[in-house]
Amino acid sequence: GLPSAKDEIMTIFESILAGKIPAKKVWENEYVLAFEDIHPQASIHILFIPKTKTENLHELASSSNQDQQLVHLFRAIADYAQAQGLDKKGYRIVSNIGAQAGQSVFYTHIHLLAGEVLGAFGRARS
Length: 126
Ligand code: AMP
Known about the structure:
Structural class: alpha+beta
Strand content: 15-25%
Distance between the termini: 39 Å
Bound molecules: adenosine monophosphate
Number of helices: 5
Number of strands: 5
């Protein structure tokens, strides 16, 4: 079918990967980049992205050649969290997928929140 706007427009995270806009990188290897969220929701708020483009977990999980990307993404989070001592203190990982979750960047990413006692999450407050 026709390409959608989401396909045509480079996402902000592709621009970061391409070095076209700056980011505060905190961790990187061949497969994964981690950088600080520009609007932090906790004193530590990091975004982990695979270096190959997919829109969300479902596109990532459904392409058979992406299995290693899934492994690398979660291993990166575990390695970073352990290196920072967050496995001991506690932290949260979240991925917003689609409309009801309020996904705003259509490039697969996992949020890591830490550094303080975290609030509840889930249903929108009225
Ligand atoms: P989501 O709403 O779950 O799709 O998450 C997108 C996240 O990207 C939000 O938490 C934004 O604050 C963050 N974000 C948007 N633009 C940038 C940027 N240029 N650098 C770092 N984080 C960004």
